Amino acid sequence: MSKELDILIIGAGLSGLAASIQCALSGHRVTVLESAKELAEIGAGLQLTPNATRLLLKWGVYDTIRGLCEPTTCTVYNYKGRILAHEDHFDKNNRRKYNAPFSDCHRVDLQQALVRKAEELGVKVVLSARVVDLDFDVGEGQQKRASVTTEAWKTYEADLIIGADGLWSTTRSVFLGRKDSPLPTGDLAFRIVLQLKQIEDPKLRKMVQEPGVRFWAGPDSHVVAYSMRGGTMYNVVLLVPDDLPDSVARVEGNLEEMRAWFEGWDPVLTQLLEHVDRVDKWKLMHRAEMESWINDQSNLVLVGDSCHPMLPYLAQGANSSIEDGAVLGLLLALPHFKSKHQLPKTLRLFQKLRKARGEAIARETFKQRKDFHMRDGSEQEARDALFLRQLGKELVGAFPSRWTCPVVQPWLYGYDAEKEPYEIGRLSRMFHHPVINMIFRS
Ligand SMILES: Cc1cc2nc3c(=O)[nH]c(=O)nc-3n(C[C@H](O)[C@H](O)[C@H](O)COP(=O)(O)OP(=O)(O)OC[C@H]3O[C@@H](n4cnc5c(N)ncnc54)[C@H](O)[C@@H]3O)c2cc1C
């Protein structure tokens, strides 16, 4: 039996495209079904961290992303503008520590670079193909095939379906057999993209042109800002308590309301907000942890936001989704992957490797919220004292900003998705061992 699989990926977002590239590199036939008519500018900026850029480099995608900005500094201010933490040479430090860059880009520029690579590798990307139903019991035999039906009543069949359809995943609901909607986190994001040409003030222009990551931490809210498209655009995200009705996930925001929330904050930030002529308001959602990311028939696996969405407070949603795709594709290429009958074991390994990490990162994003959103008071004073004791010094131990924290940062950025399957390769040689077998069956 051929070891090549027909793989169908639902969603050409970052997890789906990453999975498509690694699965194609592993020798499989891959089709991606995407509901959108075109890959347009959905969302705005994305911070890419070394755990994902090392994969993008390996695939030859990194250098093809338009207008990447590598921030040279990372600074946390309190909401009045006092520096709480600052790292110079942030770009060089990341490259030195993790052998891969920390970079900022526009989401669509990354998505288009991934599509180009996927298509180069023979992946078929089908646009305007919204999946509305799935069937996991197609054909005869022990290892069943699966099929999907699109809105246009087209049916596709495959040995393996990868559900990469994001936060509002249809795949997840069909798999669970019930409508399963995302849950509010209690926060929303005002998303802003400023063009350099909109800004006249020389100090603010310099801020956009000289890439640095900036955070402002204040009561119940925080702000993150960074340059993209070669310093010609500035991405600003304002994170505040959610006041949108339950039924509204995204809407155009009101500029006056946005500015009012940040009244009295650092004048640099409020001046910047004066230049904004359009803002989008996005409800930030998450989901309960799932019992399993794979189905009983072992012909469906979920990746990315469909199974581990998180708050964007550590910029790991896309980065960890790219990790998912890479690990899955690599596991399917291991020397032990000889036929589709090995899918149950391979998917169990994937889940074993990825579920704990994806969910742990999601939980960590809520801890970052707590540390960035403190109201004025004794807890905030203790946090600021912890920040300020280490200002200008080498950081030691747990730190309230996980972006430079010497404990959390290596866990996030030091992860090498490529090494996971090698580690498992070592384990798989022991697979006949009854105890190891039992662990992976659990
Ligand atoms: C304000 C904000 C800022 C963020 N910043 C960062 C950041 O800096 N760094 C970072 O790593 N992450 C960031 N994230 C998170 C990141 O955007 C997501 O985690 C990431 O996009 C998830 O990738 P995905 O492929 O799983 O889902 P998506 O990127 O959402 O892709 C899902 C795809 O599936 C398609 N689709 C959906 N339903 C169907 C269907 N039925 N049939 C076919 N196709 C379908 C969609 O059109 C879409 O293209 C941020 C999120 C927000 C809200």
From TrEMBL:
UniProt-recorded name of the protein: FAD/NAD(P)-binding domain-containing protein
Domain FAD-binding: 5-335
Keywords: FAD, Flavoprotein, Monooxygenase, Oxidoreductase
Residues annotated as signal peptide: none
Keyword set includes Oxidoreductase: yes
Family, similarity comment: Belongs to the paxM FAD-dependent monooxygenase family.
UniProt-listed InterPro entries: FAD-bd, FAD-dep_Monooxygenase_BioMet, FAD/NAD-bd_sf
Pfam families listed in its UniProt record: FAD_binding_3 (PF01494)
A GO molecular function held by the record: FAD binding
